[in-house]
TrEMBL record:
Catalysed transformations (reactions): 2 superoxide + 2 H(+) = H2O2 + O2
Region forming the signal peptide: 1-19
Alphabetic keyword roster: Metal-binding, Oxidoreductase, Signal
Top EC class, one word: oxidoreductase
Name under which the protein is recorded: Superoxide dismutase
Role this protein plays: Destroys radicals which are normally produced within the cells and which are toxic to biological systems.
Length: 222
């Protein structure tokens, strides 16, 4: 009996090691973002939706030329990817980014450089929020809203459908995202039902500005 259990554990470990794409641990507890995002939504979102994208991505690339590619390499070939690879690669990347730019910490700060760039481009942080909210509310159906850095190193706002993102070679507005907000109803329906605007307002209260700033700097110094 014990031997069977050991074998099962070893098999599970070998499967997880061999998988190309791995879901990182959530950087906070499921209930850490209460009352902005409720615990049940976080648990379902991370352990079912995001985990599902990772599993389906690994299944979709298995035995194909895509198996050894990074997410960024896959996105550079977006227009030629099978739908299963594209959607699940996007789903994995987008959610990993989303968790990283959320935090229960209240003392995170925009860097001076990012604040300067935001002010020059949008007229300040409040204007950026308003513009992103407007973009998010005009996204019909499921998708994401982005603050990204264009190839010309300019800050830009966009939204994408489904699990697309600005790194994909065939989207209209291309660049490197530094902040992305999930607009799928699975991200907010339990607490906010159809009130996407209320969900967006809540998300602004839990943004990890340190992480957004770090992402901005890493693009700018490239
Ligand atoms: Fe999601």
């Amino acid at each position: 009996m014990l031997q069977n259990k050991i074998l099962i554990v070893m098999l599970a470990m070998s499967l997880s090691v061999s998988a190309q794409f791995v879901q990182k641990p959530l950087p906070f507890a499921y209930n850490a973002l209460e009352p902005f995002i409720d615990s049940q939504t976080m648990e379902i979102h991370y352990s079912r939706h995001h985990a599902g994208y990772v599993k389906n991505l690994n299944d979709a690339v298995k035995g194909t030329a895509y198996e050894k590619m990074t997410l960024e390499q896959l996105f550079s070939k977006a227009s030629t990817l099978p739908a299963g690879v594209r959607n699940n690669a996007g789903g994995h990347y987008n959610h990993e980014m989303f968790w990283s730019i959320l935090t229960p910490e209240k003392n995170t700060k925009l860097s001076a450089e990012l604040l300067k760039a935001l002010t020059a481009t949008f007229g300040g942080l409040e204007n950026l929020k308003q513009k992103l909210n407007k973009e998010a509310l005009s996204r019909f159906g499921s998708g994401w809203v982005w603050l990204y850095v264009s190839d010309k190193k300019q800050l830009e706002i966009s939204s994408t459908a489904n699990q697309d993102n600005p790194l994909m070679a065939d989207v209209q507005q291309k660049g490197t995202p530094i902040l992305g907000i999930d607009l799928w109803e699975h991200a907010y329906y339990l607490k906010y039902q159809n009130k996407r605007a209320d969900y967006l307002e809540a998300v602004w209260g839990i943004i990890n500005w340190n992480e957004v700033s770090d992402r901005y700097h890493s693009v700018i110094i490239k």
